[in-house]
Amino acid sequence: MIDPSDLEYKETKKILDGRKKLNSFFLELTNWINKQYSVNAINIFYTKIDQNRKPMLQIVFKKEKDYKSFTEKGSIYANKKTEKEIILKFKEILKKNRNIEYQTKSIYIFFTCFESVAKIEANNLIKKNEIKKLTKELNNPDLWYIEKNFETPIFFFYTKAQKSNFIALKQNKIYKKKYFKLIKKYDKYNCISYENFETYFDSKENFENNHNGNWLHYLK
Description:
Elements lengths: L6 H11 L6 H14 L3 E9 L4 E8 L2 H6 L10 H17 L11 E6 H11 L3 H11 L4 E5 L6 E4 L2 H9 L3 H13 L15 E4 H8 L3 H5 L1
Parallel strand pairs: 2-3, 5-6
Antiparallel strand pairs: 1-2, 4-5
């Protein structure tokens, strides 16, 4: 789950909106995870992938801090200890309920985060005319362009010197506050806080000289 168009993200929104409920197996497992580890798991998907049809549980946490606590540092892969504990609990739940639907041989877990995708969606919902209005409000002749860029907007100045001077004057916090106010209008699931929201600053000079003026190259 990395994009607002992903099925897992859309289905998880239904859970949060009250339009869908977890089945009894997954509800019991999420309740156990949340109590056992003091986190907020909100959805679970069971799928079989690769040529061997190996089963996978995708567990969705609402907050990024919870997601990070269940993955290896600097990695997207599950922490082996907690993965083992959750798999054992899942098998216990299935056995207790005489499950015949879910296979658990060679099962593994993949953790994902709702918050990071919700931030992208909120930023995507900001309209072009709102960006134009913000640019006009900032009233800075050194500012060339504002790129929404997934969940982290980038303010481009014309030159590197202009960008450096802007940061030296500590004006970046003002820009962050103004954009934060704008993006919060679209934060339906309350995933964006001032603390977890970031803004970047760059220059047209860098964009053209080091990325050939190519957005695909710059944003990859």
